């Protein structure tokens, strides 16, 4: 007869409670190896440190989680997008508490979602760059989203850049195409689109340094801040009378979209031409309520939208010390932005 003791029961319960944890690097040297070994419901727990991409979630209903300090678990670079969800991932596929950086792919350098609907929360998608050769297009240096219905919560999408030469780029921070993407409490800041043109203002400067939304599906932005994004056009042949600027420095949309309680602050166009507003509505399928626009050098809005009320356009932004993203709150989003710029000051 087998004797089962209280201690053996406790040990069994303890082992079963952690059986779904895949620990990086103590059990698996790489994030991808842990994902490959994981089953539905498992948690890939990533200790502080920097880990090399690319990482593919492979359609698994798992959680890939960094430590609670969002900047401590970093996935960087690789031969493809740093992280990709391209196998019909559902809302049960969760990415959280991660810094995603160092990507260099033309389309979706940092995070690429195609026909996928994962949940992404408390992540920093920063410092992804596409410096493209003559004639090559690019989009979504921070995030590229095509199809699906991802939910993006409390993320910072900042400091991503695309440079094109005699070509077009759109949505440097985040590019959304035919997707029911929903962003809540996100900060899209400091993304930079640079167009170098020698073709005399052919109208291909690009749009949406912060965000670009296109297609027939409806996207949603709630309590998001789009600030200090920049669109710059340099031309070397002089202005022959064409429009050489871009459109919608913070956000360009040609899709159905709902903007609720968002803040568009200090977005900038530079170089030749104009930029057709911090937000450019190129269809009449957009609605906006409770949004604030201030100190945008490119103007505030361009194009028609359904005004659902309480939108404000003060000349000067109100803020307070420590509010780095301009949302009138001092919280973890500001701390993350401070850490991302840690180091000596260029000035």
Folded structure, characterized:
This protein is mainly beta and 347 residues long. The chain has a domain at 107-322 and 332-339. The protein has three helices and 36 strands. It has helices at 6-18, 31-37, 332-340; strands at residues 21-24, 43-46, 49-52, 55-56, 63-65, 73-76, 83-85, 94-96, 99-101, 111-114, 119-121, 124-126, 129-134, 138-139, 143-146, 151-153, 156-158, 161-165, 169-170, 174-177, 182-184, 187-189, 192-197, 211-214, 219-222, 225-227, 230-235, 251-253, 257-260, 263-265, 268-271, 279-281, 286-289, 292-294, 301-302, 306-307. Strand 1, helix 2 and strand 2 form a beta-alpha-beta unit. The model is unreliable at 1-19 (pLDDT under 50).
- In angstroms, what is the radius of gyration? 21 Å
What is the number of E strands?
A: 36
Q: What's the number of helices?
A: 3
Look at the helices and sheets and give the structural class. Answer: mainly beta
Helix content: under 10%
Largest sheet: 11 strands, parallel
Mean pLDDT: 86
Percent range for β-strand residues: 35-45%
Assembly type: single chain
- Given the C-alpha coordinates, what overall shape results? globular
Name the strands of the widest sheet in spatial order.
1-2-5-8-11-16-21-25-29-33-36
């Amino acid at each position: 007869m087998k004797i089962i003791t209280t201690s053996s029961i406790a040990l069994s319960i303890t082992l079963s409670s952690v059986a779904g944890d895949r620990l990086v690097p103590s059990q698996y040297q790489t994030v991808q190896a842990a994902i490959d070994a994981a089953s539905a419901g498992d948690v890939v727990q990533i200790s502080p440190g920097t880990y090399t991409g690319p990482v593919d979630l492979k359609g698994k209903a798992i959680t890939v989680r960094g430590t609670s300090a969002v900047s401590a678990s970093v996935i960087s670079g690789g031969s493809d997008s740093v992280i990709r969800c391209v196998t019909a991932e559902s809302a049960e596929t969760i990415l959280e508490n991660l810094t995603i950086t160092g990507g260099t792919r033309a389309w979706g350098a940092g995070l690429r979602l195609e026909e996928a609907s994962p949940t992404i929360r408390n992540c920093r998608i920063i410092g992804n760059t596409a410096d493209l050769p003559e004639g090559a297009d690019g989009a979504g240096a921070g995030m590229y989203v095509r199809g699906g219905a991802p939910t993006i919560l409390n993320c910072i999408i900042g400091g991503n850049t695309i440079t094109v030469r005699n070509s077009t780029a759109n949505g440097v921070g985040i590019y959304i195409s035919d997707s029911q993407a929903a962003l809540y409490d996100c900060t899209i800041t400091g993304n930079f689109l640079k167009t170098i043109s020698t073709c005399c203002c052919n109208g291909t400067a690009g749009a949406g340094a912060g965000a670009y939304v296109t297609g027939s599906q409806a996207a949603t932005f709630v309590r998001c801040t789009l600030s200090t994004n920049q669109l710059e056009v340099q031309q070397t042949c002089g202005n022959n009378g064409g429009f050489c600027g871009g459109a919608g420095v913070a956000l360009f949309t040609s899709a159905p979209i709902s903007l609720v309680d968002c803040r568009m602050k200090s977005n900038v166009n530079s170089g030749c031409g104009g930029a057709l507003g911090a937000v450019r509505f190129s269809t009449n399928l957009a609605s906006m309520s409770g949004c604030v626009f201030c100190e945008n050098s490119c103007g505030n809005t361009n194009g028609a939208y359904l005004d659902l009320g309480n939108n404000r356009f003060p000349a000067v932004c109100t803020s307070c010390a420590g509010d780095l993203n301009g949302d009138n709150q001092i919280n973890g989003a500001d701390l993350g932005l401070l850490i991302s710029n840690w180091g000596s000051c260029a000035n």
